[in-house]
Amino acid sequence: MKRLKGVAASPGIAIGRSYQVQRTRAEVVYQEIIGPGQVFSQLHRLERAVAATEEELGAIKARVEKELPAQVYLIEAHLMMLKDQLFYGQARRLIEEEMISAEWAVYAASCDIAARFAAIDDLYLRSRIEDVEAVAERVLRRLAGQPAEDIAGIKEKGILVARNLSPADTTQIDTNWVMGLVTAMGTRTSHTAIVAQALEIPAVVGLERALESIPSGVLIVIDGTSGEVVVDPDEETLFDYQERQARFESYTVEIRRQAHLLARTADGHRVSVLANIEQADEAVSALDLGAEGIGLFRTEFLYLSRQELPTEEQLYLDYREVVERMSGRPVTIRTLDLGGDKFAHHFDLVPEMNPAMGLRAVRLCLRRPDIFKTQLRAILRASVHGRVRIMFPMISGIGEMLSCRQTLQECQDELKSQGLACDPEVAVGCMMEVPSAVFIADLLARHVDFFSIGTNDLIQYSLAIDRVNEYVAHMYQPFHPGVLRMISATIEAARKRGIPVAMCGEMAGEPLSVPLLLGLGLEEVSVNPRAVPWVKRVLRSADRRRCRRLARRVMAFETEAQITEFINQELGRFFPDLFSSEGQMVY
Amino acid sequence: MTEEREKPGRPSGADQEQGSTESEDGTLRCRLVVECSLGLHARSAAKIVALTQGFDCEIVFSKDGHQADGDSILALLTLNCPHGAAVEVEAWGPEAPACLEALSGLFARCFDEE
Q1: Domain map (residue ranges) of chain B
Q2: Which end of chain A is more exposed for a tag (fewer CB within 10 A), N or C?
Q3: What ipTM, to 2 d.p.?
């Protein structure tokens, strides 16, 4: 028995056989000299193998484009490597000149490339040899008649163990077979973690030497809540984890069962828990999971999923579907939050150097009133079918807010003169995600009916951290005192003006931050539908007065590290039934 | 979108534009500096390949006596260009001037990444 410790990335316990996903060369390499008469047939074999690999990568690219567009470049780079003269061209030359088999030529070409990479002193560049090897392996497997091991093709129940999983890998995970993930690389916010959480399978990442420590085919236990991995557990340990697994599962079921109860704190204070959705049909599962409304309906999908711009009628029907499904519960529709980069084909814009701070969201919409008005009219028309709130993203100043309201008013007047109905009382709010908006929150509050704090962008913009950039991702800290002050200031400004304030970023769905947010005075959160039951569970055992004291003490600390440590400790004390002293959910 | 934002406007970016010279055989030459913090890595190399493939001309990068064809991602990666590295670029063919201009733009914009 061996105990290992990695980074907890997706909660739950999995017990099963390890299954190593090795991204190394296929075992088909052997030197074979061919006669002059065979050159043509070997070239032909190589061509077919490369064409098949190209098709394989093309299919993966199509899938990644849909699900993880930011990672498409990786697959594109693989496609380029496949057809590169140093790889494909060199392999062809070796067959013709050295008269060796296609396998040996591919292997030899990739060894030549590896030698070039080995001479590089920059660690990051040097490690790109892994990409070349991954491509060469695909071709070698094709030559051997055994296509590259596709994770989608795994038909054996097990826990995947890999050095790292690429987007090409994780998009193919079939949870009927894959029970959990262990990787040597990665952090709590890395791609593998996000995918595992979405699939609701346990994951431990950042477990150094995972491949060396966990052979294929042995019984392992992974605890995605604590980060522990046990290789070849003894009977007692196994029994212990089986019990914990059962407890976790029944706890999850129990929490889901309670999801329909109102989120009322122990001292009787109500907090609304709503859901964030991207597509109309998600409203159904949001309701099933106990959401009390939609706090953020992202409306980009209909624009990205087609070549032409959606019509007012298409948008109206989509919004109306959600509004009707929620039957009277609030539906907060956020207007288009896209940058020019996301749909250049609609806008004829030049690529921007810094799209996150470029022409996007309301900036883009105000420039293109035709597109903006089409969406606003659709939202207004849907508003008669229930309770709609309109939310403008990326507001940075009063001028922008007034322009948005002005455009909205024009749409309302137009609809009225056309005899089309809309809710005259529709609530209008803005996202609080640009630091300047936070600093003028008191002024902004005069011009809106509600605020919704978008923590993902607010954190990114105020800490100047792109959390997708692996070199700085660890500095993306929701508990940074600067971020907490911004949140607190926004809540305070809303309270003074008497308007409601919600939070719709990922931070709101993190059980660990819920007591603090409650203590800061937040009265509405909107979270990923899957997080709704958990957030409600925490709220129901929370006591607002205690949370206020917690918040007060938190705001006095100087560093994120102190705050995190303090919160972990305190939550373990406040909610012994919910959190351990290390800030993990207990069950 | 981080600390490198102001760089394209710095003198090195301007040098890149002015540094282009034409030799007697019609070959254009210029010097480009890799300004992005990650160096010339997979994403940026892929962008160079995609760009050069769109022009009717030959592009050769060289650094420290090694050469890389503009349409070979592997050669570009192994040219070993970390942050701050300077590369010589040669271009010839009907669309060489346009291609060189587009390339120096791509370098100056830090490959549209930062």
Answers
A1: 7-112
A2: N
A3: 0.77
**For residues A251, A257, A263 and A267, what is the CA-based torsion angle, rounded to 10 degrees?**
-60
Q: Give me the helices (H) in A423-559, please.
A: 435-439, 441-444, 455-463, 481-497, 514-519, 532-541, 544-554
* CB contact (8 A) between residue A356 and residue B1: yes
Check CB contact of A418 with chain B, cutoff 8 Å. no
pLDDT over threshold 60, residue B46: yes
pLDDT, residue B11, reads: 37
pLDDT of residue B15: 42
Q: What pLDDT does residue A252 have?
A: 85
pLDDT tens-place string over residues A9-48: 888 999 999 998 865 545 555 667 778 888 999 999 999 9
Chain B residues inside the 8 Å CB shell of A117: 77-78
Contact yes or no for B71 and A119 at CB 8 A: no
Q: Determine which of A84, A457, A459 to mutate to test the interface with B (most B C-beta atoms within 10 Å).
A: A84
Q: Is A466 on the interface with B (CB under 8 A)?
A: yes
Residue B53 Cα, gap to closest chain A Cα (Å): 11
Rounded-to-integer distance, Cα B103 and Cα A230, Å: 52
Residue A167 to residue A68: CA distance in whole angstroms? 7
Note whether A329 and A283 are within 8 A (CB): no
For residues A287 and A323, the answer to whether their CB atoms sit within 8 Å is no
Exposure string over A66-78, b if 16+ CB within 10 A, otherwise e: eebeebbbbbbbb
DSSP A89: I
Of A170-174, A443-447, A502-506, B87-91, the least confident: A170-174
CATH code of the domain made up of B7-112: 3.30.1340.10
Q: Which of A163, A155, A205 is nearest to A180 (CA)?
A: A205
Domains of chain A as residue ranges with CATH: 2-21+150-253 (3.50.30.10), 36-143 (1.10.274.10), 261-574 (3.20.20.60)
Answer whether A354 sits within 8 Å of B40, measured CB to CB.
no
| Inter-chain CB proximity A464 and B2 less than 8 Å | yes
